[in-house]
Structure formats: structure tokens, C-alpha cells
Amino acid sequence: MTDSTSVVTAAILVIGDEILSGRTKDKNIGYIAEYLTGLGIELREVRVVPDDEDEIVAAIDALRAKVTYLFTTGGIGPTHDDITADCVAKAVGVGISHDERAVAMLRERFPNPDDLNEARLRMARIPHGADLIDNPISRAPGFMVANVIVMAGVPSIMQAMLDAVAPRLKTGRKMQSVSIDTDGLPEGAYATPLGAVQKAHPDVMIGSYPNFDGQRFRNQIVLRAREAELLEPARAAVEAMLASLRS
Amino acid sequence: MTDSTSVVTAAILVIGDEILSGRTKDKNIGYIAEYLTGLGIELREVRVVPDDEDEIVAAIDALRAKVTYLFTTGGIGPTHDDITADCVAKAVGVGISHDERAVAMLRERFPNPDDLNEARLRMARIPHGADLIDNPISRAPGFMVANVIVMAGVPSIMQAMLDAVAPRLKTGRKMQSVSIDTDGLPEGAYATPLGAVQKAHPDVMIGSYPNFDGQRFRNQIVLRAREAELLEPARAAVEAMLASLRS
After folding, report:
1. pTM, whole model, 2 decimals?
2. Any idea what DSSP says for residue A81?
3. B33 in contact with A at a CB cutoff of 8 Å?
4. Given CB atoms, is A195 within the 8 Å cutoff of chain B?
């Protein structure tokens, strides 16, 4: 469902003490950010919070009110510190219980009834009214309820869930962008004229991104706009400005 | 300054459209998280927001009220999209102007007055009352004002600034932790007894972290406590529980 006029927005909520302690390095934020940009969904904010019910519910409340879709990662396993599904049900204001569709998925993975113990069945606790999101790797599903999309924290599973849910999402007009290498010119040399180009092209977002390779800076000027035709005159203005500084 | 009784907390605010678009992958959150844990400072929350004054000021207000220290990264360069210093001054409620100490640092890098243009001098705009944080790489300093620590977004510069500011920070008692490899035992097999161990050791934080290598899960159970003597009995209980499952 692509709507070429509206802006579709998103936020990410990463749930997990292990990210905040630095023990686990998050690999999901950058992946989801790039994926959503490719879909034409604008990521507006990211938060990382601990495995604490009050913190999680408060963050869900704040973020889902601001955006079209809130994506969460982490906290949907079978152990006592996995409390995401309950927090989402509470924040969205629906009940939660074992979902027959989710139980059936777990039965495929654990055909022996002894293996499908109480802890594993916790992974089939799904907020009422949710749509399930397939997990081809370890079966325990993610889900989407209201505008909240709940995914695993393990990157390979999260990525598979994102592929599974993407076709169901509303998407907006894709942001068009062009990147210009300043070819060694430092930010301080072009900052003032670049600010003037930005003023003259208010519908194009112009950013300057320094990169230090340990020896010297290599900067990129990135121009973004929802209409490709806005981009070209701004790009020409930046190129002309850089050329005049080099001459 | 180590205070062995108090808990010192922190939050991180990452500022930058380029992180939200996925164009740049953040490398600072995980680094700072691990660094703070090593210092005995507990990271409580992370947010990523766009280069937008209202969003930045609101996030500074919310986060700095919750924690001992708020660390920001990004948005302190010379271009028009670098607005962090002004936002911090506004949030903290102090004025901002060119700081003579910061101007002197920039003069060392740009001895020719023609090179120290208006845009580069923007990097010497510092909120009133701030302490500067040295930048050995490109000289433009970070700063600390009230409980907000403002650092560059370029990872190598941010890391140098963190080293520079760390000795000035209050630190708490270091979190002690121990990690137990479950040696192939899946989460679903130990989730219920692990929950019982957590109940019996409420002062120890017990987490279970699945890791999927593309073939199978390798899980770690991590126990954390501020008192090493609390950790040992909980560790023994987890080991005994895992041994009983394997037998």
C-alpha cells in the first residue's frame, strides 16, 4: 500500500538491559533504519530502555502516539526477563493470553508435548486482536497490535520478521537523496555558503557529515527531498559552490 | 571520585538525521555503554533524535532530569545543521556565546586568521558556565554544562572526549557480573527453573541472552549485582540448576 502523498513515520524501541550495559552491541537500529528508508517510511526517533515494565510501557505510550508505526525489538523469549508482550498489551489496553495460532506454530517446533513446557508456551502469549508475524527460524512469532510491531532481538530473526511484516505496512513516498563527496574540502571552508544554499532551498534537507579516517576528514554533503525535481537545483547549487571554493 | 554507596546513572542522546535515515550506522552507543559500565556508571536510557531544535530540547529536558549525567553525541560542527550547543544552552537555561578558551583552541588549529572564519568560530560557541572537554584530534572542544556532557559524533573524537571527561565524573560502585554459557541448553529448557532462581535471589539481576549463529542458539545467562558476595550463591544456584537439567 503506497500512498504517494502522505508521510508515513516510525519509531524504534529497543528493549534490553544487555544493550544498556554494553554487553551486547545493538545491530538492529541501523538495519531497521535503512530498511524503513528503503520502504519510504521515515524513522523519527529511537529509544533503548531496560527490562522494566514501567519504563517499557511509558516508552510505548510516548512513541506510538507520535508515529504511524512503532517497532520494538527484544524481550519476547521464554525467560522471566522477557516481558515485552505483556507491556505492549498493557500500553495498548488489550488483554493477553495464549494464542491458538501461536501455540500451533510452537507445536511444529516442539512436537513432543513434554518439550512444549510452560516457559515455551509463554512465547505464545499474544495480546488480543494482534496479527502474528512469522518466525521462520525458531517459530515463536512476533506480532502487530494497534500500531505496534513486536519483533525478536536476535538480529537474524528480527530481519526475517521485518521481511514478513513489510508487505502489510502503509508506505509513503520515498525520500530521494543525493550524496556529494567534498573531495577533501573541510566543513569549515564550505559551512557558510552551504548554509546559504540551505536557505535558498528550504524544501530540501541538506546535511554535512564529516568522516575521520584517522588521518584526515572526508566529508559528504547529503541532500534529501521527497520530490526528485526539488533535488536537482539544490544539487547544482552545492556543486557550483564547491567548485567556486576550489578555484 | 568514587562513591561506593551511591548509584550514578547516565543517559545517551544521539543527535542526527543521518542515524535515523540509516545512512550512518551509530558506533557510539555500544562504546559509551561499555565504557560507563567499566566506570561504575549505570546507563538507563538511550534516545536518537533528528536535527530538530524542539525534539533535541525536549529530549535533553526529559533525560537529564532522570539521570546523573546525560551524554550527547553529534551536532557540534561548523555547518548549519549543527545546533546541539544552542539546544543545550536553551534546555539548561543559560546563555551561549563565543568562548575565549575555545577560540584559542581553534586558533592553534587555524593560525591564519582567514581560515578561522565565521563558520569555524561557530564551534567556539559554548553555553555560559560550561567546562570545556579537550579534542586532541580536530581541536574544536566538547563541553560539560550542568549535568550535560556534549561530545562529537565522529567516533574517534567522541572516544577521545570521553577519555578526557571521565576523570571529572562521579562514579558509583561497579556492577559485578558473571556470565554462564548454557552449553547448548535452550532457553525453553531452563526458563522456569531460572525464574525460580531469580525469585530466590531478588538482589541479583539475572538475564538470559540467546545468540543465534545461523545454525543453533548459544545462550548466556548473565548475573549482575553491586555486591560480589550476592553473586556467588546465585551463580552456584544457576550452575546446579543447569547441571540437574543435563543429568
Report:
1. 0.94
2. T
3. yes
4. yes
B164 interface with A at CB cutoff 8 Å: no
Which domains, ranges and CATH numbers included, belong to chain A?
A: 8-168 (3.40.980.10), 176-246 (3.30.70.600)
In this complex, do B81 and A208 lie within 8 Å of one another by their Cβ atoms? yes
Determine the Cα–Cα distance for residues B154 and B159; give it in Å rounded to an integer. 9
Contact A195 B80 (CB under 8 A): yes
Interface of B with A in 51-70 (CB under 8 A): 51, 55
Which tens digits make up the pLDDT trace of A19-51? 999 999 999 999 999 999 999 999 999 999 999
- By Cβ distance, the residue of B23, B42, B118 closest to A192 is B118
What's the pLDDT band for A184 if we cut at 50, 70, 90?
confident
For B122, name the nearest residue in chain A, comparing CA atoms only.
A188
Statement: residue B3 has pLDDT above 60: no
Query: In degrees to the nearest 10, what's the CA dihedral of B241, B242, B246, B247?
Result: -30
Please tell me the distance in Å from B191's CA to the nearest CA on chain A. 5
Residues of B in contact with A19 (CB under 8 A): 29-30, 33, 46
Structure confidence at residue A173 (pLDDT): 86
- 3-state class (DSSP) for residue A187: helix
**B22–A45: do the CB atoms touch at under 8 Å?**
no
Supply the ipTM of this predicted assembly: 0.93
DSSP state letter for A175: P
pLDDT in tens, B161-193: 999 999 999 998 888 999 999 988 999 999 999
Closest-CA residue to A127 (of A146, A103, A105, A109): A146
**Chain A CA closest to residue B208:** A79
Residue A4: pLDDT over 90 = no
